Amino acid sequence: QAQFVESGGGLVQPGGSLRLSCIASEFTLSSLTIGWFRQAPGKEREGVSCISSSGNINYADSVKGRFTISRDNAKNTVYLQLNSLKPEDTAIYYCATCSILTLRGYSYWGRGTQVTVSS
């Protein structure tokens, strides 16, 4: 089944950094708008950031200035750099195709990667 595969999560202290990777399996992502999403325990999934095929980017207000999305089409990969992490960033992070205007996710959902921010 075609889907994204996320990796790079882990346990990090507040103020720390992580880089998440999202690789497309069985399809090419170069023409797609791809985004990162997260779901914390007991909360609904929320859009974090999306990047279009031309490089347009949108971020949720909660992560602006701390997270950076990027893509490497040659590697069929989208990245999310997480800096200045806070305990409230703890969640499972997923990638999927998305709307850059609404940060809504659509398809090719992966299984996610766990990010835990704790001292």
Structure description:
With 119 residues, the chain is mostly beta strands. It contains no helices and 10 strands. It has strands spanning 3-7, 10-12, 18-25, 34-39, 46-51, 57-59, 67-72, 77-82, 91-97, 113-117. Strands 2-10-9-4-5-6 form a 6-stranded mixed beta sheet, with no helix packed on it. The chain has a 4-stranded antiparallel beta sheet with strand order 1-3-8-7, with no helix packed on it. The termini are far apart. The model has no long low-confidence stretch (mean pLDDT 96).
Q: Pairing-aware structural class of the strands and helices?
A: mainly beta
Distance between the termini: 38 Å
- The H/E string reads EEEEEEEEEE
Main sheet, how many strands, which sense, barrel? 6 strands, mixed
Mean of residue pLDDT? 96
Portion in strands: over 45%
Number of helices: 0
